[in-house]
Write a structure and sequence with these properties.
The chain is of the alpha/beta class and about 575 residues long. The protein is about 25% helix and about 15% strand. The protein has 13 helices and 21 strands. Helix 1 packs across helix 11 and helix 5 packs across helix 6.
Length: about 575
């Protein structure tokens, strides 16, 4: 706004005594006649909001970018703080707002991705709002204030912070879990978890047990098998689909048999100099993925074809070994569990230093893993690639209206509103809540859409003087009931044990959205306020109309006739 300007209303016209050098005058709200019920600001003037985001991974940094860059006007009324418990930023994937033309390979390493995250955060100043080594210990809604009281711990000291809006950027695959195996911690060798990898330990010349064949185990086995002098045994409970629906060669437009091809210097140079080329490759990859959703329809010809294709591809990688094929190729639908490309995983078992067993582990002794078939597997290292707590439950008390704790609400059958909100939790929004888009399409794009949705709500809360917005229980119930009906038609409810169903074979699908990624995008493009209980800070919830004028009417740079069509 310009300095204070002497102005008054006369016959509906505004007269001012000064105009900026650029010719556009920006004026303060006019002085209106006194009225006890009048808000003497422009209509939709945003009030200042404190927003706290929990977690400085991909989602938290994405929100920092939205407040600072995608919607820069929000900086004038949003004070944003990100609390991160760990000592540095982290993340799993690449930001949609800053594609990287310099990835070394089609599937990049964790180290390379981490370097990209840190570099990109600095480039965009996303770490400006981050407070590292700050653990959230409790969040409690204080209805009298219309705010969340967030208790954080830093260097052993606890303090309370207050937020008008609380965002969770932690996701679901955060808190890793150890397997419940008798004697695990009696083992005298090295024990590590895939989610807390010790990069300084020398795995060369070791006998190594890898427990689990989820996405992490599938990535770890071939890397350990390649090390000098190792002997690796993978312990698994059952098979999983490991294949390429679309090989890298199709995405790259060039022939290659490498399951994880390196990008050529020519390709990287072309993408650096012509970002449109990089966008086209990413666009085409995502378009193919979205088109493939029909494959997840239970009993469809597309899924049957996928089963036949995957079976043939996996058998070939296993050198058509009858024992390996029987043990590693599923009999259930493709997509029932997460499909993993797993470059080099299946091929590892054809090497003399890599073994696999599906005999149940009975116990672990000081120097060996013992299985139900009577075998004793002597090992030096036990790697637990046993996944995460996928219950969606917060790891700290998150207490909303009427003392409802979300840890209890989401203990058994977690139910959300569109994966982004929960009943009894006012002004609380989360990334990757129950029934999120994590089984199909680009998760990064889905989180990007979700972040835009959060910003819509924050703008609405700020500009309409809203105290709180809470999903109606009836809306949450209806959404989950209908998702359940859709899931009956999809392979995610198929005949396999999956974390999509909280580690069960025949339970509800609680992790995945009931439909395609494109349907999800359509559903969160706009706020459905009718699905929320909204309370206001003013007795008259139209007080956001202010003095009857919008700010644009007193900004000479604005076109006040923009709506004329022809």
């Amino acid at each position: 706004m310009a300095p204070a300007i002497s102005e008054h209303l006369e016959n509906g016209l505004c007269h001012d005594s000064s105009t900026p050098a650029n010719g556009a005058a920006h004026h303060e709200a006019p002085s209106m006649p006194k009225s006890p019920g009048l808000n003497n600001q422009f209509a939709f003037t945003p009030r200042k909001l404190r927003v706290i985001t929990i977690g400085a991974g991909f989602s938290g940094l994405l929100m920092a970018h939205k407040f600072q860059h995608r919607f820069p006007e929000m900086q004038s009324y949003v004070e944003h703080t990100i609390f991160e418990g760990r000592k540095e930023l982290g993340g799993t994937w690449a930001f949609p707002f800053d594609p990287n033309p310099d990835w070394s390979r089609f599937y990049s390493s964790g180290t390379e991705i981490q370097d990209y995250i840190l570099r990109t955060a600095k480039k965009w100043d996303l770490d400006r709002d981050v407070r590292l080594n700050h653990w959230v210990r409790e969040a409690r809604w204080v209805d009298e204030r219309g705010q969340w009281r967030v208790t954080v711990e830093h260097q052993g000291q606890r303090r309370d912070e207050y937020a008008d809006v609380l965002l969770s950027g932690q996701g679901v695959l955060v808190h890793y879990k150890w397997p419940t195996i008798l004697g695990l911690h009696d083992f005298k060798g090295r024990i590590t978890h895939s989610a807390a990898w010790d990069h300084d330990y020398d795995y060369n010349d070791k006998r190594i047990a890898v427990i689990g064949n989820g996405s992490s185990g599938i990535q770890i086995v071939p890397q350990l098998q390649k090390l000098p002098g190792t002997d690796v045994t993978n312990f698994l409970r059952g098979p999983t689909w490991v294949y390429y629906r679309v090989p890298p060669s199709t995405h790259l437009g060039r022939e290659t048999d490498d399951p994880n091809p390196a990008y050529t210097e020519e390709e990287k140079k072309r993408w650096r100099e012509n970002p449109a080329e990089l966008r086209k490759m990413r666009h085409d990859m995502i378009a193919r993925t979205n088109k493939a959703f029909r494959m997840f329809v239970k009993g469809s010809d597309t899924n049957k074809d996928a089963v036949a294709f995957a079976t043939k591809q996996m058998a070939a990688k296993l050198s058509n070994d009858t024992r390996l094929c029987e043990m590693l190729i599923p009999k259930w639908e493709v997509g029932c569990r997460r499909i993993t490309p797993g470059p080099g995983y299946l091929e590892s078992f054809t090497k003399p230093n890599c073994h696999v067993t599906n005999s149940k582990i009975t116990h672990i002794s000081e120097g060996a893993v013992h299985t139900e078939d009577g075998q004793t597997h002597k090992v030096d290292v036990v790697v637990c690639a046993t996944g995460f707590d996928v219950s969606h439950r917060p790891q700290y008390p998150l207490i909303g209206l009427n003392d409802v704790d979300l840890r209890d609400s989401w203990d058994h059958e977690p139910e959300s509103y569109l994966s982004v909100a929960a009943p009894d939790m006012p002004n609380y929004f989360c990334m990757m809540g129950p029934n999120a888009v994590v089984g199909h399409g680009s998760l990064m794009e889905a989180l990007n859409w979700t972040g835009d949705y959060f910003c819509q709500w924050i703008k609405k809360i700020a500009t309409e003087d809203i105290k709180s917005a809470t999903p109606k229980k009836s809306a949450v119930r209806a959404f989950n009931d209908y998702c359940d009906e859709i899931h009956k038609t999809l392979v995610w409810s198929g005949d396999c044990v999956s974390w999509y169903k909280r580690g069960t074979k025949d339970g509800r699908v609680t992790a995945l959205f009931g439909g395609s990624a494109l349907l999800y995008k359509r559903m969160i493009e706009n706020v459905r306020a009718e699905d929320f209980d909204i309370t206001y800070r003013s007795e008259n919830h139209f007080s956001f109309m202010g003095n009857g004028f919008t700010a644009d009417e007193f900004d000479d740079s604005k076109d006040l006739g923009w709506y004329v069509e022809k």
